[in-house]
Amino acid sequence: MKAALSWRRHRLLLQRVLDAPDCITTSEAVVQLCTAIGSGVLPRATPRWWMRRRTGGTWEDVRVCDDATDDYFREKLRMSRRVFMEITEACAPHLQRQVTFYREPLQPDQIVAYTLYRWATGESYDNSTSSFGIGRASGVRVVRDVTAALLRVYGDKISWPTGVRKHVVLRAFQDKGFPNCHGAVDCTHIYVDKPANALNENYFDRKHCFSVVAQVVVDLNLRVLDVFVGYPGSCHDIRVIQLSSLSRRAEEGTLFRGPPVTLLGGVRTNGYILGDNGYPPSEWIVVPYGGINQHPDQERFDNKQKVARGAVERAFGRLKGMWRLLLRSHKTNLDTLPQQFTAVCILHNILLDAGIEFDENLLWEVDENGVRRRVDLGIHRPPQPVTMLTSTDAAHALRNALAERLKHI
Q1: Residue 115 confidence class, pLDDT cut points 50, 70, 90
Q2: How much helix, strand and coil, in percent to the nearest 5, is found in the chain?
Q3: Assuming Cys at both sites, which of 133, 228, 307, 368 could form a disulfide with 55, CB separation 3.0 to 4.6 Å?
Q4: Which residues form the DDE Tnp4 domain (predicted)?
Q5: In this structure, is residue 51 part of a structural domain?
């Protein structure tokens, strides 16, 4: 009955347009007709051939709410349904889309789910979008929008520790034998396909792959405290840290705030982070002694320092193991890759806060020959320790004082 009335109204409106004696009446009739269509009184037009029909696939599977599919949900999106809903709700105001005449817009939950799926599986846009019933162009736009929303809503998830959190970080490193240590730093390479609009040799790293460098500082709980990403793969770790705000803040004296700590021999330190031999010794980066035929004190220090510094490698394992797009070479926009990597680091911290466990099996893969092997985390170790004239007596005095302290632990 209702359908018949709607169709009758449709015919009357069309008849008014045809019978209108002047342009004013015609305009009024057209306005009424458009209003009726927009309000849903009349059926929407059938989508044109160029409008891709949406199907079910992975998106329909993860929407099922039962215990049997919870593991499937975690496998595909790397988090519990509760955490996913919290992220979606927080980002939704920045993801709402306008209703159009031809199609209902993608909803925030589908938008967020697709982005997480793309980052988690590393599938290409062509393959991953079909699993969510959306077009490739929509997939590219969705990832861009979710990235921006995460940076806007959760930007404070990556921050240098202060207050109670700073006390927890310092205490954890002190228990490892490194008082007043604020974190561990290292770089990882994000492998990309050959850049189309950039100098290829700049992105060609020493493993003969195209990559972008990401510098990350973490605490002993694997939490990301600082991230700096975007320089080409040929850029050395030393150059990257010199270009980062981390170096500038350390030199300005704003990176480490709080009372200095006095070590054995009267050596005072305002704070420092741990690094590998890819960095030169400095007053704010403590690196191993390195070399061969070490003194037992130096060997003990290097072993202890490696254990504490290993937090950053474990963080890369968790981050890249969960979000496998960062593990393998992929086609990407070099302008938006830094924002996407930072957004993934934000998710990394969110999942740590939520207590989401990491599946160690994600650190392994099967190669084309069927051999199981560890994944390549993109950590490029220096072929030999870096020695630079910029290393100061104060830098060596700090390391020696820490080594002396470790003798008594």
Answers
A1: very high
A2: 50, 10, 40
A3: 133
A4: 185-349
A5: no
Q: For the chain, what is the domain count?
A: 3
Going from the C-alpha of 184 to that of each of 39, 85, 262, the distances in angstroms are 58, 32, 21
pLDDT in tens, 378-409: 998 876 665 554 568 899 999 999 999 998 87
Say yes or no: 170 and 314 in one domain. yes
Q: How far is CA 323 from CA 120, 210, 377, in A?
A: 4, 19, 12
d(Cα 160, Cα 288) in Å, to the nearest integer? Answer: 24
Is there a single domain that holds both residue 127 and residue 259? no
Q: What is the pLDDT of residues 307-329, one digit of tens each?
A: 999 999 999 999 999 999 999 99
What does the block give as tokens for 214?
């990401």
Q: Are strands 285-286 and 272-274 parallel, antiparallel or unpaired?
A: parallel
Q: Identify whether residues 137 and 284 lie together within a single domain.
A: no
DSSP labels for 14-71?
Answer: HHHHHH-SSHHHHHHHHHHHHHHHHTTSSPPPPPPTTSPPP--THHHHHH--SGGGHH
pTM of the model: 0.83
Looking at the structure, tell me whether residues 217 and 276 fall in a common domain.
yes
Of 44, 40, 45, 46, nearest to 2 by C-alpha is: 40
